Structures are given as C-alpha cells and as structure tokens.
C-alpha cells in the first residue's frame, strides 16, 4: 500500500468515527404500515355456509373451512390479527392444531400479515405459488409497487402450487386459480359447500382486481400487468359462482361488523365487470396525463 493509499484509508476511517454535528437533523422515525380501523376491529366468527366461516376482522376476510379431518385457513388479515384468529378458531370449538393447511390470496401485509405466527401456533403447512412464495419469504420487502412500505413477518412455504391444482383435507377440496394483476402471484379459490338452507353452493374467493396507484402503461417491472388483469377477469367470469367472497368484503357486498350481512348480490361476472371498468378508466387517465 502506498503512502497516499494509507492516507486516504486513515481519512476514511476518521470520517466514519467522527461524532455527528450537534446541529445535524435527527434521522427520521420508522413508520409502520397504518391501516383503517375496520381492518383492525375484531368480530365474532360469521357463518358463510355450513363448512365456511369468516374469522377475520370487520374489514378484512380470513376464511376457515372446517371439515371432519381438520380445517384450512385462507388469508389472515394484518400482522396484529394473529391472536384474534386463534381465539376465533377456539370459539368455534376447535384447537389451533386442527388447522392443517394455510393458503392465501395475495402476499400483501393486509392479508398474509399474521400467517407466520399462525403457522407457528398451529403447525399447519403453507401452500402458495412460486411468485407469492418469493415475496412471502422476504416479508413483503421489494414489492413491485410498494417497495418496502408494507412489511410483515416472513413466511416460508411448504408446498408450491400449479394453476388449477387442489388442496385437499378429507372432504374439503379447494381449487386454486391464478389471477395475477393486483400482485403477480395473486390467487383466487373455489370450493363446494352447502348453504345454511342445506342446498349445494359453489363458493369463489376472488382476489382483488384493483390497481391502487399502479403504473399500468409500460411498467418496466411488470410489462404485462394489463394483460394479466384482463386474463384474470376472464378466469373469474368463467367460474361457477353461486356465492362470491373477497379479501376486502365490501368489494363483494359483504359486511362483517357487529351485525354481519350481505348488503348486495354480486357474482364473479359482475365483480370482474366492475373491476374492468375501473381498470379502463385508470388506463385512460394515465394516458391523458402523459
């Protein structure tokens, strides 16, 4: 090392060890991902069909399918909802260990946030697809649209799913439908149940089809985002869909507050039509702003 190199090295180390100026501005506070009050408001379990329960919060769906051989959880809500989910599982006469599988819709913090904690408490296995598994393992970091703005405890996946595959537990049989757009790994789910009247019902849990603040035209990180949205809408329109549920209940006409109700009838086709109209309007607005 030459004398000049030694001098530069010494100066660099001195700069690193030098105390901050008394007049320097303090570093900014870390800010957590903040959500609506309804997303954090606990509610009692809501029976959707004979084997299908909503056990999430007032503003976010978390579905529990209960069979003779155990239960399957779909989504969980925000990270702080883990204890609430476990309490609602017990309220239904189950033990946490009765939950054998955990699946999800999208890998955003407001839907998969507590799933790592629920997995530890139940011993359940997690099934997802390859796109979502990567984001789950990063705890939401590096999201295509939100960067590191919506973090949650990382979650390791036990089983990777292919489009159209099923997750089975005794008589429970969930089929996955890849519906990318809101996230590249978004998934929707369909299964058969019986309504409270005992008649057969085909249920679809359709993931979000919204693009909140997304760049839709010439997105360098997601070049085919619009094509994915339209293909997902076509997928949902084609599903048998007697009863529609969504991660954000209001999108499918549900209310899960103290007096739960289905406030408007909406099927998969109507859901996709509303979403496509909103997508077209967003694309037009983006084009006009160029």
Please tell me about this protein's structure.
The protein is of the alpha/beta class and 290 residues long. The protein has 7 helices and 14 strands. The protein has helices spanning 3-17, 82-91, 109-112, 115-122, 130-137, 225-237, 268-288, and strands at 46-47, 52-54, 63-67, 70-74, 99-103, 125-128, 159-160, 166-169, 172-178, 187-194, 200-205, 243-245, 254-255, 261-262. A 7-stranded mixed β-sheet has the order 1-2-3-4-5-6-7. Strands 8-9-10-11-12 form a 5-stranded mixed β-sheet. A hairpin with a 4-residue loop joins β1 and β2 (52-54). α6 packs antiparallel against α7.
Q: End-to-end span in angstroms?
A: 54 Å
Give the neighbour order of strands across the main sheet: 1-2-3-4-5-6-7
Give the low-pLDDT segments.
none
Task: Note the beta-strand portion.
Answer: 15-25%
- Could you tell me the mean pLDDT? 93
- The radius of gyration over CA amounts to 22 Å
Identify the overall geometry. globular
Strand runs, count: 14
Structural class given helices, strands, pairing?
alpha/beta
Order of helices and strands: HEEEEHEHHEHEEEEEHEEEH
Largest sheet: 7 strands, mixed
Number of helical segments with 4 or more residues:
7
Tell me roughly what share of residues is in helical segments: 25-40%
